């Protein structure tokens, strides 16, 4: 049984999404001792920007006409797909950047979708029913009644990909106001931020064994 962990934050020290991912991973391993954890850190090691268009172009280019760049792109797409398809569960951590999905996360998913086994155009869902945890950290407040309600365009998109395109069994764990501790203008929100982080860590600890149980079943 393997857990694939994909981190997308450009931060390492102080990253809330990574910290929540750690809580989930620890509780997953408590529920499933000895589970191998495979890691893909596209936050610290981004996928090359030129790979996706090269991989997309292989769809309409006969294989015997592929360039070296297309072969390399297809190879990387296959490698990423092998990692995901070979995992029994997925842990994806993703902060909200500029109201949307991190470039690093988008590049990972875009490349996966060029792989024939995961292409929506093929109508195949080999990941159907597999557990996935989507860990989200938002610097501000985007909840109901806030000035920026509805400005989070990242979480719905990621959930759409994991739940509807890949047909995985998804749980979302999110924390808000994560910039309050470092932004003086948000100082009055620090208590709420701490509460949000605490609740998110509690939820991460709860959903980890639930998703591990899906694998066990």
Question: What does this protein look like?
Answer:
The chain is α/β, with parallel strands linked by helices. It contains 6 helices and 5 strands; from the N terminus they run βαβααβαβαβα. It has helices at residues 16-31, 51-57, 68-85, 103-112, 154-165, 190-216; strands spanning 3-7, 37-41, 89-95, 131-137, 169-175.
Structural features:
217 residues; alpha/beta; five-stranded parallel sheet; 6 helices; 5 strands; globular
Summarize it.
This protein is an alpha/beta fold. It has helices at residues 16-31, 51-57, 68-85, 103-112, 154-165, 190-216, and strands at residues 3-7, 37-41, 89-95, 131-137, 169-175. The chain starts with a strand and ends with a helix.
Low-confidence stretches: none
Please report the number of helical segments.
Answer: 6
Query: Which percent bin holds the helix content?
Result: 40-55%
Strand content: 5-15%
End-to-end CA span: 12 Å
Chain-averaged pLDDT: 95
Strand order of the largest sheet: 2-1-3-4-5
Main pleated sheet: 5 strands, parallel
Q: How do the helices and strands line up, and which of them pair or pack?
A:
Layout (H helix, E strand, L loop, with lengths): L2 E5 L8 H16 L5 E5 L9 H7 L10 H18 L3 E7 L7 H10 L18 E7 L16 H12 L3 E7 L14 H27 L1
Parallel strand pairs: 1-2, 1-3, 3-4, 4-5
Helix pairs in contact: 1-6, 2-3
């Amino acid at each position: 049984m393997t857990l694939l962990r994909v981190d997308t934050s450009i931060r390492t020290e102080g990253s809330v999404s990574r910290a929540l991912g750690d809580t989930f991973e620890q509780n997953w391993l408590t529920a499933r001792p000895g589970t191998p954890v495979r890691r893909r850190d596209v936050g610290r090691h981004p996928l090359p920007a030129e790979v996706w268009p090269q991989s997309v172009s292989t769809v309409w280019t006969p294989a015997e006409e592929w360039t070296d760049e297309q072969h390399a792109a297809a190879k990387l797409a296959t490698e990423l797909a092998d990692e995901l398809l070979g995992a029994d569960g997925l842990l994806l951590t993703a902060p909200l950047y500029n109201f949307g999905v991190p470039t690093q996360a988008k590049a990972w998913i875009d490349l996966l979708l060029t792989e024939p086994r995961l292409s929506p155009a093929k109508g195949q869902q080999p990941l159907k029913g597999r557990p996935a945890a989507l860990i989200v950290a938002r610097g501000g407040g985007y909840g109901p009644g806030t000035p920026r309600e509805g400005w989070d365009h990242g979480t719905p998109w990621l959930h759409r990909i994991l739940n509807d395109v890949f047909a995985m069994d998804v749980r979302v764990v999110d924390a808000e106001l994560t910039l309050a501790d470092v932004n003086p203008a948000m100082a009055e929100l620090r208590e709420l931020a701490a509460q949000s982080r605490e609740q998110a860590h509690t939820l991460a600890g709860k959903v980890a064994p639930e998703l591990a149980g899906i694998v066990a079943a």
